[in-house]
Amino acid sequence: MEPTSVAKPESAFRDYAGARPAVRELYRLNHAHQTVDFVRAKRDEYLPLRRRRMGVWQAFEALAELVDESDPDLEATQQGHALQTAEALRAAGEPRWLVLTGLVHDLGKVLCLFGEPQWAVVGDTFPVGCAFDPRVVHAELFAANPDASVPAYATPCGIYREGCGLDALLLSWGHDEYLYHVLRPYLPPPALAVIRYHSFYAWHSHGAYAHLLAPEDDEKRAAVRRFNPYDLYSKSEERPSWPALRGYYEPLVGELLPAELQW
Ligand code: FE
Ligand code: FE
Fold first, then answer.
1. Is residue 88 part of a domain?
2. Domain of 84?
3. N or C: which end of the chain has fewer CB within 10 A?
4. How confident is the model at residue 7 (pLDDT cuts 50, 70, 90)?
5. What's the confidence (pLDDT) of residue 137?
């Protein structure tokens, strides 16, 4: 099995203007409903991690049929996307922990199987509790968000202190934050930064929210930017075959993660 090739140019990805209508609809719902209260409620609901125990392979089986509606570039299932990302990292000679990170980075999308609508699981992330930055994709849709008219949330810092650092922010709720909590005990800091912040494009790719960052966030950004091309540009119609790759990935998962995780 040949590793996935990276053929399309950068400009061929994340074209939201030309995306199918379902993508915009997902962002409409996401930007209207991701509020401080909503994010706090979801954190209270999920982050105790008391829902079930499940291994990585069980989570993949559960995601076999899921297609991410927020993604203008991808019609592959989440299982295919996981393997394409991991295979691209492996082909580039990246270290084993980063290949594993590529394999698992979107597993938080099991939230969809717990009944969450896709707008509360996928799509770009952004902080709530402070002014929405125009560099967030489809920022015009924040006009419908009730927090936009809460004075305490409408200033550049909002409920945060200047320079407080990324980890102090309440990001919009989705698969990234959830999986970060599931895997926090097991993976090294750069892997956890990739998992937690990979959908925060306004920050990692467009320089937004600089006034809220702390010096240690530079390292997190470097990790996310190292990873991002493999997440984005490995998307293709080529489908790596799961059974053919089990011999590589099963030992890798066993080396870095326990047989069962708490979700
Ligand atoms: Fe993701
Ligand atoms: Fe991804």
1. yes
2. 14-233
3. N
4. very low
5. 96
Going from the Cα of 236 to the center of ligand 2, the distance in angstroms, rounded, reads 13
Position 55 in a domain: yes
Q: What is the pLDDT of residues 9-39, one digit of tens each?
A: 555 677 777 777 888 999 999 999 999 999 9
Q: What is the distance in A from the centroid of ligand 2 to the CA of 19?
A: 17
Q: Relative to the alpha carbon of 198, which ligand is closest?
A: 1
Mean of the pLDDT values across residues 83-111? 96
Q: What is the mean pLDDT of residues 44-72?
A: 89
Q: Which ligand is nearest to the CA of 81?
A: 2
pTM of the predicted protein model: 0.91
Helix (H) or strand (E) holding 255: helix 242-256
The total number of structural domains that make up the chain: 1
Residue 61 lies in a domain: yes
How far, CA to CA in Å, does 240 sit from each of 4, 79, 223?
A: 7, 10, 25
In a domain, 59, yes or no: yes
Round to whole Å and give the CA distance between 119 and 206: 22
